[in-house]
């Protein structure tokens, strides 16, 4: 009878000492790096129109696809937008972007923020920049602020420095002092 507990202890000890190495754990999720033509760290590139610089983009990591005509940026995306005379209009930040060189369209996502040089600020989760017409737009919720004013809405079209803004659906606004003509 004493041999049963000893035998049981030996089996437990042998199982504890058994080889625990199994098959390697792998991820079935594909990453951008798996299929990119090129990868650039601390990437920088220019968006131009007929030789005129319209924007300068920088990012932590840039993945190039489709014969290097599409750039997928991840982490600390920053865009400097310039007017037709080459003057800085606005600065954009986002967590990710996609730029298609063939269409001239940049899509920014993830906490997108645009600050114009004269103090206007726009925040949205999604932003589209069309290089051909030098225009920003979104079909998502946004908040546009300037000193003493704030507007919340869904969807807009504007120039990058937010001087000419068309809002699709205004949700809420707070206006500062309004001067009436005499």
- Choose one word for the global shape: globular
CATH architecture: Sandwich
Rg: 27 Å
Classify the helix fraction into a percent range. Answer: 10-25%
Helix and strand layout, with pairings?
Blueprint lengths: L2 H15 L14 H4 L2 E12 L2 E14 L4 E13 L5 E13 L4 E12 L4 E10 L4 E12 L2 E10 L7 E9 L8
How would you summarize this macromolecular structure in one to three sentences?
The protein is mainly beta and 182 residues long. The chain is built from 2 helices and 9 strands; from the N terminus they run ααβββββββββ. It has one domain: Lipopolysaccharide (LPS) transport protein A like domain (lipopolysaccharide transport protein A fold, Sandwich).
What does this structure look like?
The protein has one domain: Sandwich (lipopolysaccharide transport protein A fold), CATH 2.60.450. It is 10% helix and 58% strand. It contains 2 helices and 9 strands; from the N terminus they run ααβββββββββ. Strands 1-2-3-4-5-6-7-8-9 form a 9-stranded antiparallel β-sheet. The longest helix has 15 residues. The chain is globular.
For this entry, give a set of tags.
globular; 182 residues; single chain; 58% strand; mainly beta; 9-stranded antiparallel β-sheet; lipopolysaccharide transport protein A fold
